């Protein structure tokens, strides 16, 4: 296998030379297991861990390798190699870590396209789709909406879902598929490009692992049925893994996500809700909160039906979530800065013999 088969390109080679990494083996992280990594290279797959220096200098979980990363390796044998350097990422899809306010969890890196998978029979949720779109746009990743399990609904419900997506989401490809009958699967395969990296985002039980098997043409991921007692998907995929498809596309499967906390600081919301943002520029007051003010162009558009009320409510909710996340991050940085100053002063006092 060539590095190009894993998505390597001229830009990455230029970065490798600029960082003076010619003496190391280049590879891509295809799986992660509790800070042990599987890295795929031209010579095969290697188990790897990070250097002590990387661990010591890491300020957060974002500084550790993730599935999709390109890394420079020192290889000792098949069971032991060391990751010396993580090549700067061109995209990072992330969310807020569950239960840890202000912490970021990396979903996948160096992604070109994201397949946003929702099941037509029970999982479809347009608000959650807008959340997925926001984290994609924030990461500069192109989204593709995939409505799965259309064999479990009638034509009326299928059309209703597609119309709902069309009414609230613009300029995003939407493909309806059945993993059982393969309806729509060829259309999805046709848009997967050789050398480009895709990741799948969605809840448990929407058929991501089955879709991966269908796209690859072979059984790679174990699949499972919906729980009869809860009507919810069982967690089949327990970790992230990168797979090279026969078509040449590169696909990262992800565990199902119950929560999709946004970490948007780079315009993801503005792109997802571009119509609302565009109208907000015409509000009477520059500091309009778009909730109660007179002369608010957004509220006026909601009242006359130009903006869907549910979409407006979803936007407000995510704007508040974004503001809370940013304030939490700012507070943490302030505490870290104060702690750093205290530690620095303590070291100075030690040197002066005050302790």
The structure class reads: alpha/beta
SSE ordering: HEEEHEEEEEHEHEHEHEEHHHH
Q: Average pLDDT value? A: 84
Provide the spatial order of strands within the biggest beta sheet: 10-9-8-11-13-12
**CATH class category of the domain at 92-253:** Alpha Beta
- Biggest β-sheet strands, sense, barrel: 6 strands, mixed
- Overall form: flat
CA radius of gyration is 23 Å
Number of helices: 10
What is the CATH superfamily of the domain at 92-253? P-loop containing nucleotide triphosphate hydrolases
Low confidence ranges: 222-238
Helix fraction? 25-40%
The second-level CATH architecture of the domain at 92-253 is 3-Layer(aba) Sandwich
- The CATH topology annotation of the domain at 92-253 reads as Rossmann fold
Proportion of beta-strand residues: 15-25%
Descriptive terms for the model:
355 residues, alpha/beta, OB fold (Dihydrolipoamide Acetyltransferase, E2P), Rossmann fold, six-stranded mixed beta sheet, five-stranded mixed beta barrel, 34% helix, 22% strand
Provide a descriptive summary of the structure in words.
The chain is of the alpha/beta class. Among the domains are: 3-86, Nucleic acid-binding proteins (OB fold (Dihydrolipoamide Acetyltransferase, E2P), Beta Barrel); 92-253, Rossmann fold (3-Layer(aba) Sandwich), CATH 3.40.50. Helix content is 34%, strand content 22%. The strands form 3 sheets. Strands 10-9-8-11-13-12 form a 6-stranded mixed beta sheet, with helices on both faces. It has a 5-stranded mixed barrel with strand order 1-2-3-5-4. A hairpin with a 2-residue loop joins β1 (25-33) and β2 (36-41). The chain is flat and about 65 Å long. The model is unreliable at 222-238 (pLDDT under 50).
């Amino acid at each position: 296998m060539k590095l190009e088969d894993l998505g390597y390109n001229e830009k990455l080679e230029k970065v490798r030379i600029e960082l003076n990494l010619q003496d190391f083996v280049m590879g891509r992280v295809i799986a992660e297991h509790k800070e042990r990594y599987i890295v795929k290279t031209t010579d095969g797959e290697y188990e790897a861990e990070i250097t002590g220096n990387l661990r010591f200098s890491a300020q957060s979980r974002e500084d550790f390798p993730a599935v999709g990363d390109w890394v420079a390796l020192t290889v000792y044998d098949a069971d032991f190699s060391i990751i010396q350097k993580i090549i700067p990422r061109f995209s990072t899809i992330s969310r807020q870590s569950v239960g840890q306010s202000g912490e970021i969890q990396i979903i996948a890196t160096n992604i070109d396209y994201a397949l946003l998978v929702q099941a037509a029979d029970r999982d479809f949720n347009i608000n959650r789709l807008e959340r997925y779109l926001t984290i994609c746009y924030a990461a500069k990743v192109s989204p593709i909406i995939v409505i799965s399990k259309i064999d479990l609904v009638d034509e009326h419900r299928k059309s209703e879902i597609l119309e709902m997506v069309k009414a609230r989401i613009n300029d995003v490809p939407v493909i309806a598929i059945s993993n059982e009958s393969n309806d729509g699967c060829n259309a999805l395969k046709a848009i997967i490009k050789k050398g480009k990296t895709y990741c799948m985002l969605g809840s448990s039980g929407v058929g991501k692992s089955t879709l991966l098997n269908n796209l690859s043409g072979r059984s790679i991921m174990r699949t499972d049925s919906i729980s009869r007692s809860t009507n919810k998907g069982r967690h089949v995929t327990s970790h992230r893994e990168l797979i090279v498809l026969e078509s040449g596309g590169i696909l990262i499967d992800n565990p199902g996500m119950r929560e999709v906390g946004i970490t948007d600081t780079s315009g993801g919301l503005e792109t997802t809700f571009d119509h609302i943002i565009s109208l907000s520029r015409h509000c009477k007051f520059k500091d309009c909160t778009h909730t109660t003010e007179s002369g608010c162009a957004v509220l006026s558009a909601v009242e006359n039906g130009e903006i869907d009320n549910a979409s407006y409510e979803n936007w407000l909710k995510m704007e508040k979530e974004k503001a809370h996340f940013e304030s939490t991050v700012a507070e943490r940085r302030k505490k870290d800065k104060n702690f750093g100053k205290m530690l620095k002063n303590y070291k100075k006092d030690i040197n002066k013999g005050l302790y």
